[in-house]
Amino acid sequence: MKDNIKNFKFPANIVKQYPHIKTEKVEFGWKPKSYELTNDEERIKEEIRSTNWNAISQNWNLQTGELLNPTKVSSQSNPLYKHKAWLEHVYYEWGLSDPKIARITNTSQTTINYWRNKLKIQSKNK
Q: Which among 5, 11, 34, 126 has the fewest CB atoms less than 10 Å away?
């Protein structure tokens, strides 16, 4: 199964349908372009992980009942960007933009923007 996932390539019609997906041409189709974090982004990610999150919030449950761990990296099983206190802190206190938060949480800018709006976190531009 890992080989199937590793070798998966998007069909050309999917790439045309979703032009926002960054892709690169390969022999038999297109595949998403993978991005490695810069050293600066890795440093920020580590510093965010080591923040004293208990001083910011005592409740790390989502409305779904899912318990988050802010001292671990954001992932599908630990979606920190869905927690208001976490997202507000990295957005305002750290001054990170939606694209930067998306990169360090391995999500998309659209996902971060969606959660900022859903959690009623005002844009810094307003």
A: 126
